[in-house]
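Researcher: Please predict.
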Amino acid sequence: MIPAQILDQITDKCTEGLALALACDEDGAIMELQWCNSAFTRITGYGFDEIVGQRGTILIGSSMDQGDHLIIIEKLMNWEHFSVKVRNNRRNGEQYWQKMSWVPLSDAQTGNRWWLCSLVELEDQPRETARRRPYPAVEPDQGQFAVFAEKIKRLEKENARLHELAKIVAKESNEDALTGLSNRRHFEIELKSWISDLKQGGRDFAVFYIDLDRFKSVNDTLGHDAGDRLLISVAGMLRRLTDGRDLVARLGGDEFVVLRPLGDSALNISGLADAIVQEMHAPFAFEGKSTFCSASVGVAIANARMEIPEQVVADADIALYHAKSQGKGRWSFFTEEMHAEAIATKRLVSDLLVACEKREFVPHFQPLIDAATGRIASAEVLVRWAHPRLGLLPPSAFLETAASMGILKRIDEITFAALPDILASFDRAGVELPRLSINISAGRLADPTFIHDIKSSGMDPQRLTIEILESVYLERIGDVVQWTLGELRALGVTIALDDFGTGHASVQGLLKIKPAVLKIDRQFIQPIVEDETARALVASIIGIGKSLGMSIVAEGVETEHHAQFASAMGCDYLQGFHFGKPMCSDDLQQRLAETAGAFWHPGAEHAGLERIQRFS
């Protein structure tokens, strides 16, 4: 029987053929088909009973190119999520072109691994395949193919063995295999020797911790060969800038370190740091293409007065982090203030992990007002950290660190889990709160379990708005996120685009996301009372949103003038400190009870009304 949590991941709205196969843990290419939908049987020509219980090889027809077949086998073996466009056969031998996609699934309860196979029939031969050089029609020799596949497996195993052997040999030597510099092992041995000498009255020395700022970009755009060439070039540069007294090492990846004895002048140290940074500002060329890859450097001094000289490398690393946080492509010298900041950050990291375990994150709510009636239309959920020692902390105190730790998803989950009970408490008290809106991180949108969490939360999706930060979403848009948005709309959840204008604002982006609500960022709303240019810009944004059928929210409404202007210009909803700062659920419930939900009384009599009418 297929577990419910597996079926929950499959939408029944897909028009393509779908099949589920239970896979072997040791080899993803070994599987047994367990289920398929009617579209799958229609495309392949096999009946349901003919498919269930069969090996995955039933999906490989005699017309499929052997190269395509090997690609599929390799990717299945490695549990990759992939799609291929191939020529295949139906059960009756008829040839057709199809897009075949494979998605790995897992059952957390049993540990079983599954494949979701998707088939889409293509009307025409794919263009890239049509350009292939035609091969003569030869009846495939299945025995020869099996021998060939077995040879490939043996070669892959031998290659992996040789790769591991090379790593062992490199580890046991003192030299980095790529650059010829000292490797991490040799550096650690030499560092102990330098510190031992320091403790016995030897000279102070400096540690330069060097990290390339855009190395991943070089690998991604020019390829790994270019990345290796760049590392070799950096190693040559470091050799040229240092001398026999210094130790130059590559710690791994794009990280390098230099040990240099302290001279009579600080210029001996600052000069080297500055030279490294300046040299890395020059463009890097590879096979006729050029790119830039700056370097950041952290510098720290080891001296006999230090209680723990071994801390010097960590100090240099802290200085490196500071250099990167100040804009990269520069160097920083370690200070005690950096040390204190690093300790505070470590404490914050530790406290955040405990906060997740103890669920110390609590939702606060800021009202969103209907511009036509002045009554509450929704409340935006804003997370706060109820720190046991420091009190209630705003997002600015912890979200950046939480993002670097990768725990934003966990904070989202904790916050969201509290909402159904809060809404229920308002309903029991007879206090009207029509809906809640909550910002969702890009990682949470890309998490397939997000839809399941909403369905199982008990919260009415019709009373939920999901707000997406434009600057974050447009960078992360993909098939999974598009699927999530489609599922949210199908549930009845409203999609809003938050902080519009602060990221990659474009009509194309709006068409891609298709939000029902467009929230204009506060930096555009705040100047509209006095600035005609700001009003013209806001009017343009409102016009675009209205033309696409969207409701418009004005954020940053802090005065009565703001409220009147935004309302007269066509904003449907208003949000800002003029109607209330973020408050806990009890305070919001009390205020709604006292005001019967009315936060504002839009009136015609207003000191600036003539200006509003003239503008509108």
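Model: The CA atoms of residues 338 and 359 lie 30 Å apart.
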